[in-house]
Specification:
The protein is mainly alpha-helical. The protein has a domain of 175 residues. The protein contains 11 helices and no strands. Helix 1 packs antiparallel against helix 2 and helix 2 runs parallel beside helix 5. It starts with a helix and ends with a helix.
């Protein structure tokens, strides 16, 4: 859980700090430093609103648990979180190039019209988006115990790393590009999302909402048991210990949704998810190439028109 919380918090906090940092840097560069306090005001209010959303979410989850509907809510949270995590990675990949320009254009309009309220609302919404997503993700990886994730070392470390990285980025001393950072962390985020999706399917099968053609497609308990209890049971039943510890198995299950005895539906969903990611990545890449060709063609047309 802590590793998941670290990666998720790092990504979300870094994205929020980058946008806020772009805005405040632009204000300083254009001699409008007096507006910086309004940007931070909006960001601060968004943090408070996110904490409030976490508390409200916890109350709702507790209410569902009291009505014996906890498992259904967990499944819903896992599926939504898997979709949001995937969307987060692709959104940053497609908007990272024009993020700076769009943020500066909005602030330029607010400054020209003296729209202080717009500045506050803009920074509020930017940070709130990341905060609400974090609440959902924490609920998914902890089974609803959001407070445990917020107070753990993973979330705190993620925030610290994000602050340090954003500081180095804006100071111009970071040697590794943010693009590389987002690519590396994006891979782990995708793996976490795939794990949440598979765990949701497993829970749906436990609830008998969906069936299974092959409940146990294969059994890797002899190699890597899913839990320390599975390790003990295998040792008791076979007289030999599995090759790897169940503690490692429970770590991989929490982080990537590992299962030593998955159903065929879980395996299909896992492989299908990555196939979908590959197709989306290919489509996004082709779309970028097409856009660049159109831009180049338009530039060539404009130059030829000027020459004639």
């Amino acid at each position: 859980m802590e590793i998941q919380a670290l990666l998720i918090t790092f990504r979300e906090v870094l994205e929020a700090l980058l946008i806020v940092g772009i805005i405040t840097t632009y204000l300083k560069r254009t001699d409008n430093k007096k507006y910086t306090k309004y940007v931070w005001l909006g960001a601060g209010l968004a943090v408070l609103a996110s904490i409030g959303a976490a508390m409200l979410f916890q109350l709702v989850f507790t209410g569902f648990a009291a009505m014996v509907s906890e498992m259904y809510l967990k499944v819903g949270i896992m599926i939504i979180s898997a979709l949001l995590l995937t969307q987060m990675v692709f959104w940053m990949a497609s908007h990272s190039r024009d993020l700076k320009g769009k943020s500066e254009d909005k602030m330029s309009k607010f400054i020209s019209t003296g729209n202080v309220v717009g500045m506050v609302i803009h920074s509020f919404l930017v940070v709130l988006r990341e905060g609400i997503e974090t609440v959902f993700f924490f609920a998914a990886i902890t089974g609803g115990n959001i407070g445990a994730a917020m107070q753990g070392w993973g979330a705190i470390t993620g925030v610290i790393i994000a602050v340090v990285v954003s500081y180095l980025f804006f100071k111009g001393t970071m040697k590794v590009s943010l693009k590389t950072f987002f690519k590396v962390t994006g891979v782990f985020i995708i793996l976490i999302a795939a794990g949440l999706l598979v765990q949701a399917i497993s829970m749906l099968q436990d609830l008998e909402i969906i069936g299974s053609i092959i409940p146990h497609l294969y059994d890797l308990t002899w190699f890597l048991p899913e839990h320390p209890i599975d390790y003990d049971h295998y040792l008791r039943d076979h007289g030999t210990a599995p090759l790897l510890s169940g503690d490692f198995g429970i770590f991989l299950k929490a982080l990537f949704g590992y299962s030593s005895m998955p159903s065929i539906e879980e395996v299909i969903a896992y492989l299908g998810y990555f196939a979908g990611i590959y197709l989306m990545t290919t489509y996004q890449s082709d779309d970028k190439k097409t856009s660049r060709k159109k831009e180049a063609k338009g530039l060539e047309t404009a130059i030829s028109n000027q020459e004639s």
